Amino acid sequence: MENRKLAILISGRGSNFVAIHKAICRGDLDAGICCVISNMPDAAGLDYARASGIDAIVLQSQGIERVQYDSLLIDTLRPFDPTLVCLAGFMRILGPEFLRAFPGRVLNIHPSLLPAFPGLHAQRQALEYGVKISGCTVHIADEGVDTGPILLQRAVEVLDGDSEETLSARILEQEHQIYWRAIALMLERVTRRK
Ligand code: GRF
Questions:
Q1: CA 75 to CA 95: how far, in whole Å?
Q2: For residue range 31-73, what is the model confidence (pLDDT) as tens digits?
Q3: Which pLDDT belongs to residue 191?
Q4: Ligand 1 in contact with 40 (CB < 6 A)?
Q5: What is the CATH number of the domain that holds 125?
Q6: Which residue among 18, 134, 175 has the greatest number of ligand 1 atoms within 8 angstroms of its CB, and so is best to mutate?
Q7: Is the pLDDT of residue 1 over 70?
Q8: Ligand 1 neighbour 146 (Cβ under 6 A)
Q9: Which residue has its alpha carbon closest to ligand 1 atom 5?
Q10: Which protein residue has the closest C-alpha to ligand 1 atom 9?
Q11: Is residue 175 in contact with ligand 1, taking CB distance under 6 Å?
Q12: Catalytic site residue 110?
């Protein structure tokens, strides 16, 4: 599994992490998860990681400045030598130092069709704007918030009467379909480069 190691960063539920792990277990994604790191100690995804025998690490971010937290994260990740760092609901903005440490190898998933509705509450923003189609995006992270080259997107229709919860749930189903596929695409690129 050399050159196909995924480090996954979460803050909560971790359903995207679980979907990636399941794709690996099914044999759909040829990769291994070297560690899961959460900035929140009570993230539900940590329990799944531990139950699955995956290294689960808590690196609390509360009260720590961005630059300091970034270098803490870099120091924690380096020994695992991850091929890709996958942000999966990680609610902390990473700075340039972090991105430079893993150049072009940090992926993010966002619940809208970027560049529409970046930032928090993307599904609520879509409903408030009144778009008829939203969706989700996996992209390579750059220094902006939810910006960077797009790898995959899936469209989801906004239905009359949708609430933030119902729309989020349908988008989430698609997130679970595209993240591991985007990872597979990236692993092809990265391993070809070597
Ligand atoms: C997802 O909607 C993801 O797009 C966004 O945060 C949510 C995380 O969900 N960045 P989960 O923790 O993967 O279940």
A1: 15
A2: 999 999 999 999 999 999 999 999 999 999 999 999 999 999 9
A3: 86
A4: no
A5: 3.40.50.170
A6: 175
A7: no
A8: no
A9: 89
A10: 89
A11: yes
A12: yes
Q: Find out whether 14 and 46 touch, Cβ atoms under 8 Å.
A: yes
User: Which residue among 11, 86, 172 is best mutated to probe the pocket of ligand 1, counting the most ligand atoms within 8 A of its Cβ?
Assistant: 172
Give the active site residue among 21, 110, 139, 176. 110
The 3-class SS string of the chain reads CCCCEEEEEECCCCHHHHHHHHHHHHCCCCCEEEEEEECCCCCHHHHHHHHCCCCEEECCCCCCCHHHHHHHHHHHHHHHCCCEEEECCCCCCCCHHHHHHCCCCEEEEECCCCCCCCCCCHHHHHHHHCCCEEEEEEEECCCCCCCCCEEEEEEEECCCCCCHHHHHHHHHHHHHHHHHHHHHHHHHHHHHHC
CA dist 145 and 91 (Å) reads 11
Amino acid at 149: P
* Domain membership of residue 180 as a residue range: 5-193
Whether 75 has a pLDDT exceeding 70, the answer reads yes
How many domains, in total, are found in the chain? 1
Hey, whose CA ends up nearest to atom 6 of ligand 1? 89
pLDDT tens digits for range 121-150 = 999 999 999 999 999 999 999 999 999 999
